[in-house]
Amino acid sequence: xxxxxxxxxxxxxxxxxxxxxxxxxxxxxxxxxxxxxxxxxxxxxxxxxxxxxxxxxxxxxxxxxxxxxxxxxxxxxxxxxxxxxxxxxxxxxxxxxxxxxxxxxxxxxxxxxxxxxxxxxxxxxxxxxxxxxxxxxxxxxxxxxxxxxxxxxxxxxxxxxxxxxxxxxxxxxxxxxxxxxxxxxxxxxxxxxxxxxxxxxxxxxxxxxxxxxxxxxxxxxxxxxxxxxxxxxxxxxxxxxxxxxxxxxxxxxxxxxxxxxxxxxxxxxxxxxxxxxxxxxxxxxxxxxxxxxxxxxxxxxxxxxxxxxxxxxxxxxxxxxxxxxxxxxxxxxxxxxxxxxxxxxxxxxxxxxxxxxxxxxxxxxxxxxxxxxxxxxxxxxxxxxxxxxx
Length: 390
Known about the structure:
One of its GO terms (cellular component) is cytoplasm. This is Tyrosine-type recombinase/integrase. This protein has 390 residues and is mostly helical. The protein contains 15 helices and three strands. A three-stranded antiparallel β-sheet has the order 1-2-3. A hairpin with a 5-residue loop joins β2 and β3. α2 packs across α5, α7 packs antiparallel against α9 and α13 packs across α15. It is globular, with a radius of gyration of 24 Å. The N terminus is likely disordered.
């Protein structure tokens, strides 16, 4: 039996008929379960509850399980706990081109989850996103097997790729292209108060991303009160920014004199006192106008993509010779700036151990794509060798 929903609905409001809720899924196991859930929706919620206190991970896990569950009941007319290895091969192909588009893909701007126009996709997934989706789903199935809910993991039959040496990072901006982005920001109009505020915000946001090598989530959930100053062994004052990164791990990011100048510039543009106050709850980046609420990750992504698009447009106006560089800017995202920061630090002979600690990498294997060192040395080298030079 196949069920057709008028439109896919988020997990929050999804109600499944008894035939599709998974209570009688063919992959269900008889015996003692380690979780109370007796249907697929509640089993998924039990899995997601493990990461509820890490919003980034929770959002990513929910998105992928939601997509698979909806595809299973809408396209195949079967519960998630009846999916076979062959079904999941078909699903992998679906991720590359979700059809019918009007059912699965949102048109225009992102809609809230309670909006009837909400859709689970915003377009076809790139190969890397497809692989990430399947990694997350494999973790889901493996946990449900371990919890005694499913008899087996249909993804465990997939061919395991041999481990290869990780490729070099390619999603970053060479220095000349980075200069184009800075030139574009500096050329933004500043005739009205709102335009001046928009310019100041763009300049500060790109400073944070480049000099700090921050992830977008490390900006959206952070405040200016987490800047602090301490004296090093030689009596010099050093500024730092405390961030909570991937896996809820805290780290200290060196705040160079250049970044402190830019912070003061941004605070003055927003009418804030030039000096930071202890435990200040002002968000690192603010909306335009009087609001003091933090910007969401989606809003920050939008600002960054708009800047890249504007810089690309100016490049295209110079002629066909610049088309490929413009296309690279159009593909760029916030994470490109993190890779750009790491690559430029490596090019500037900053010790790999310092780059690792600045970016919060777990190991040098990750950092070497672009060694723990003394904090004061890390601050000095970052200050001397990694500059934005507006």
